[in-house]
Design brief:
alpha+beta; 3-stranded antiparallel beta sheet; two-stranded antiparallel ribbon; 3 helices; 5 strands; peptidyl-tRNA hydrolase activity; Pep_chain_release_fac_I; translation release factor activity; Prokaryotic-type class I peptide chain release factors domain-containing protein
């Protein structure tokens, strides 16, 4: 059972974990030991609340297929247990990050003083450049 928050949790039947062989160089055990983990999570058929499902499916993430299946591959650790924990933690973080509602931005104006200072600096810079010109006699 994976607890997302105080009220939301996922059952073990919703998360499909399978062991696969890790990619890349790994020495003598690389072709024998299946230490990497594939985590598959079907978003539409899960027990998550509707709000969570909508937000997850709206994410522009390459790990979510068109069918709404989230696939996470964990292979950074040497043992299968650590990779399993890593995959579950990444699933939890993804769900929590999708649910966070961004604060709406209110457009602001530059203050009168800041506008005045900017214009004064521009004028001063222009005068400095004007002094660099050729002197006519």
């Amino acid at each position: 059972m994976l607890e997302i928050s105080n009220t939301v949790s996922l059952g073990e039947w919703e998360i499909e974990l399978s062991a696969i062989r890790a990619q890349g160089a790994g020495g003598q055990n690389v072709n024998k030991v299946s230490s990497a983990v594939h985590l598959r999570f079907d978003i539409p058929h899960s027990s998550l609340p509707a709000f969570y499902k909508e937000r997850l499916l709206k994410l522009n993430d390459q790990r979510i297929s068109k069918d709404g299946v989230l696939i996470i591959k964990a292979q950074s650790h040497r043992t299968q247990e650590r990779n399993k924990e890593d995959a579950l933690q990444r699933l939890k973080e993804l769900i929590l990050s999708a649910v966070v509602v961004q604060k709406k931005r209110r457009p602001t104006k530059a203050t009168y003083g800041s506008q005045r200072r900017r214009m004064d600096k521009k004028t001063q810079r222009g005068q400095t450049k004007q002094l660099r010109g050729k002197i006519s006699y």
